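ok so for the tutorial part 2 we go from a plain amino acid sequence to predicted structure tokens. step 1 is just haveing the sequence, like this:
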Amino acid sequence: MMGLSERQSNTLQSYEQAKESELIGKGWIPAFIPTSSYNIKEHHSVDVPEIYVELNFNPKDISAFEKACSLLSENSYKCENSGYPVEVKISNENHAIIKSIRNGT
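step 2 — the prediction. this is what the tokens look like for a chain of 105 residues:
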């Protein structure tokens, strides 16, 4: 139940800052995000493998998602993050929302 979970949120200015914070290493931010990522906002539940990440990136770096994920539909990908499925939705060519897929859907 999401309501009983401890939730944490972080805002990071760059990929480097996300890497230094260890949020990437711990799986709260997927390792496959483009290295050009910036304005990264993440929310996660401490005791449930559930994440929500919003970020901007250089449109030339979309290949980071294409290499790590499977295309679901135009601008939508399914990926693995720390052994759990997540969905990536791209909008405006440089904005991504990454969120956990619940119950395999």
